[in-house]
Amino acid sequence: MADVLDPRPDVRRRRKAERPQEILDAAFHEFSRNGYATTTLERIAERAGVTKGTIYVYFDSKEHLFISMVREFTKAARDTVQQMFESHDGSTADLLRAQFAFIYQHLVEDRRRREVLRMLIAEAPRFPELADRYHQEILRPCLDMLRQAIRRGVDRGEIRASAIVDSPQVVIAPIALVDLWLMLFDERQPLDVKAYFDAHLELVLNGLLAK
Amino acid sequence: MADVLDPRPDVRRRRKAERPQEILDAAFHEFSRNGYATTTLERIAERAGVTKGTIYVYFDSKEHLFISMVREFTKAARDTVQQMFESHDGSTADLLRAQFAFIYQHLVEDRRRREVLRMLIAEAPRFPELADRYHQEILRPCLDMLRQAIRRGVDRGEIRASAIVDSPQVVIAPIALVDLWLMLFDERQPLDVKAYFDAHLELVLNGLLAK
DNA sequence: AGTTATTGACTGACCGGATAGTAAATAATA
DNA sequence: TATTATTTACTATCCGGTCAGTCAATAACT
Predict the structure, then answer these.
(1) CA A35, C1' D9: Å apart?
(2) Within 10 Å of residue B183's Cβ, how many Cβ atoms?
(3) CA atoms in the 13 A half-sphere facing the CB of B80
(4) Of the candidates A96, A163, A181, A112, which has an alpha carbon nearest to the alpha carbon of residue B168?
(5) CA neighbours closer than 13 Å in the CB half-sphere of residue B119
(6) H/E element, A107
(7) What's the CATH code of the domain at B4?
(8) Same domain as A183, residue A79
(9) Which residue range forms the structural domain that includes residue B168?
(10) What is the pLDDT of residue B4?
């Protein structure tokens, strides 16, 4: 008789526990390479090392699999954003510098996040709720944090009061352009991200800081 | 046998001359609403007021129709960009103000251009040459013009020399964000474009101009 | 322990519907 | 009647989704 507390690895159960993630990973690769409609479940199954039937054990439909996959990979980016809130204090200029450096390092260089973004854009007319989720979990927190930082800077007299306080999007817009650029051109039209980062920082600091 | 030089208006030929454009228009609407793979030639034909067979008289394949459609609608945006070059002279600040106003009015508010952009992003892995064409005909001319304007401003002493001169993308990046925002959220997450435009202009002018 | 029964993750053949592409027939025009 | 733009009917293929069946792992039993 088996001990109730026996933690011995149960092959069958472990398989079942890992399958969904394996399928989601495979789905991410195939969907991001070929788009929603073009991707076949057969190919996803092949990549995951199972057959199509198995996918239906864990997911109701192709649509449900896609939604689950996007949610899964949005979650990863959200965790990265949450890390950002643990940033250091100091002058507003230093704070912005540090956070922008973080953003460029973790968000811009994260191809996975960008591929999710591509799918969201492509499928936004069909799956608007996924885009809204991205707004709620990634974009809005970033913008709220930024707005807060700018307001505090204004209160401290470090930042000049301006229309920018109410449109913090303009401050991080250059990051959106990098995403757009890389989604469209990948490496074919090179973008010197290092120089671009410096220019971004300079524009924002010159544009915001009180003289 | 028809007279070779006969210039008489031939109804049949006029029809034939207009069909391709009618089909391209219909293709744009259907492709932009449903994406490449999901759109059926039957629906495009229906919208164009013909049947599927007719499409094959003018276009080799679905793929060729898609490529032709994107080229056609990129051309329209390119014409708009070329208009921009006829801008007035004056102080660099005035020039930027005028050109940004033009961009927001003609590019941001042009849903068609944005739908093309969505398709380019969605299909970039499959049709990279279309994205490159967009770069060549739309993006690069804008950036060249901007770089030129900034350089001239620096020469005149109106603009401070900075890293921004070599990364003019950061200056128009807020426009890219509007595109991204509207592609993702349409009207669901509202963006006050008027206020945003003011903030953009303020950031850029404060960021660039010599004090 | 050895044998048998049961479970359940997984398979793979199959179905129905959809659709890109073709080509013969037809309608419109001159 | 001759030409040609267009339609109609058709084929071949692909793919999402289903389901009866398989087999290895486990539990029950002697």
Answers:
(1) 33
(2) 21
(3) 19
(4) A181
(5) 29
(6) none
(7) 1.10.10.60
(8) yes
(9) 69-208
(10) 31
CA B100-B182-A204 angle, to 5 degrees, is 50
Using the 8-state DSSP alphabet, how is residue A189 labeled? S
Residue whose Cα is closest to the C1' of C18:
B40
Distance, CA of B21 to C1' of D9, in Å? 27
Residue of B nearest to A211 (CA): B211
Residues B123 and B40 in one domain: no
Residues in chain A: 211
Residue A148 Cβ under 7 A from any strand C atom: no
The reply to whether A125 and A173 lie within a common domain is yes
Identify whether the C-beta of residue B100 lies closer than 8 Å to the C-beta of residue B161: no
**Which H or E element spans position B100?**
helix B92-103
d(CA B43, CA A143): 41
Q: Are B177 and B69 in contact (CB under 8 A)?
A: no
Strand D: positions under 7 A of a protein C-beta atom? 4-9, 14-20, 25-27
- In the DSSP assignment, the letter for residue A139 is I
- Cα gap A40→A20, rounded to integer Å: 17
Rounded Cα distance between A58 and A64, Å, is 10
* Continuous segment of H or E residues that includes residue A168: none
3-state DSSP assignment of residue B14: helix
Specify whether the CB–CB gap between B19 and B54 falls below 8 A.
yes
**Tokens at residue A183, please?**
């989604």
Query: Would residue B204 count as lying in a domain?
Result: yes
Question: Is B209 strand, coil or helix?
Answer: strand
Q: Provide the number of CB pairs (under 8 Å) joining chain A to chain B.
A: 178
Q: Is residue A65 part of a domain?
A: no
Give residue-wise pLDDT tens across range B6-31. Answer: 332 344 455 667 899 999 999 999 99
Residues 6+ apart with CB under 8 A from A187: none
Structure confidence by residue, pLDDT tens digits, A94-144: 988 988 999 999 888 899 999 999 999 999 999 999 999 999 999 999 899
Residues 6+ apart with CB under 8 A from B146: B168, B171, B172
Name the residue with tokens 């020039």. Answer: B95
Structure-block tokens of residue A33? 């390479």
Label residue A210 by pLDDT band (50, 70, 90): confident
